[in-house]
């Protein structure tokens, strides 16, 4: 029956394909809404919106992979951290507290951050693996190191560790 095949295709096209992290966020959003946890629900809604925006960015809609969803969450967490610092510097502690509360929610979904010693060790290992010396090789080392730290350290911290490894 041609009508039933068309229905199957339509179902396949409209059935959302979720990554595990995205599905976890959606499930936790539902729980937060039931518990009437406004901060958690608002933060998760904002994170899911950022993920959806990233999925439709570009020429065609695509489903983000696990690492891409994680990258979006890292970016959102960085925005919250920077906003909290800006509000604190501007003497607006109530707004800074709200941003920090949102950051705390997002951090529950991020992998544990690397401490400075571990980051320095990875940077030195990568420099040794590549046999690079001098600041001219920084881009090469960063390119090799980024996948190793994936979401566990901000780019500025990684760059500082690479600079330290290359200069010393």
From TrEMBL:
**One Pfam family for this entry, by name?**
YqeY
**Signal sequence coordinates:** none
Taxonomy, superkingdom: Bacteria
Q: Which InterPro entries match?
A: Asn/Gln_tRNA_amidoTrase-B-like (IPR003789), GatB_Yqey_C_2 (IPR023168), YqeY/Aim41 (IPR019004), YqeY/Aim41_N (IPR042184)
UniProt name for this protein: GatB/YqeY domain-containing protein
């Amino acid at each position: 029956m041609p009508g039933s095949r068309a229905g199957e295709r339509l179902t396949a096209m409209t059935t959302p394909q979720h990554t595990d992290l995205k599905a976890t966020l959606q499930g936790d959003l539902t729980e937060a809404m039931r518990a009437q946890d406004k901060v958690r629900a608002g933060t998760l809604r904002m994170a899911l919106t950022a993920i959806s925006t990233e999925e439709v960015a570009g020429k065609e809609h695509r489903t983000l992979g696990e690492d891409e969803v994680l990258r979006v969450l890292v970016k959102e967490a960085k925005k919250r951290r920077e906003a909290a610092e800006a509000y604190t510097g501007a003497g607006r502690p109530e707004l800074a507290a709200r941003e920090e509360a949102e950051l705390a929610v997002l951090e529950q979904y991020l992998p544990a951050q690397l401490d400075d010693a571990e980051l320095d060790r990875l940077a030195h290992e990568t420099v040794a693996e590549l046999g690079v010396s001098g600041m001219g090789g920084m881009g090469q080392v960063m390119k090799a190191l980024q996948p190793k730290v994936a979401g566990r350290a901000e780019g500025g911290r990684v760059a500082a560790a690479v600079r330290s490894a290359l200069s010393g």
